Amino acid sequence: MGSAFASAVPHVCDATHRQISTAMTPEQRRRSRNTGIALAIFVIAVLVWTYVRGGAILIN
Asked: Which of 17, 34, 45, 53 is least enclosed, having the fewest CB within 10 Å?
């Protein structure tokens, strides 16, 4: 009979039920960083655009 409690570390398995590593490769880390930078630039651009448009509306 199996244990009623799951282990504290989640296990990720492939289609053949072999455990695979969840560690990020350097390429995944680079892509995540680049995606984060792109999202931050987008958010800052939207905030600046909103501030500029809001200022234009208040002036008119």
From this structure: 17
Q: Where are the alpha helices (DSSP H) in 1-60?
A: 26-59
Name the helix (H) or strand (E) containing 13.
strand 12-13
Tell me which amino acid residue 42 is.
F
Per-residue pLDDT, 16: 73
Q: Tens digit of pLDDT per residue, the chain (60 long)?
A: 455 555 555 566 666 767 766 678 889 999 999 999 999 999 999 999 998 888 777 765
Gyration radius (Cα) of the chain, Å = 23
Tokens describing residue 58: 């208040």
Please answer whether residues 56 and 49 qualify as being in contact, where contact means their C-beta atoms are separated by less than 8 angstroms: no
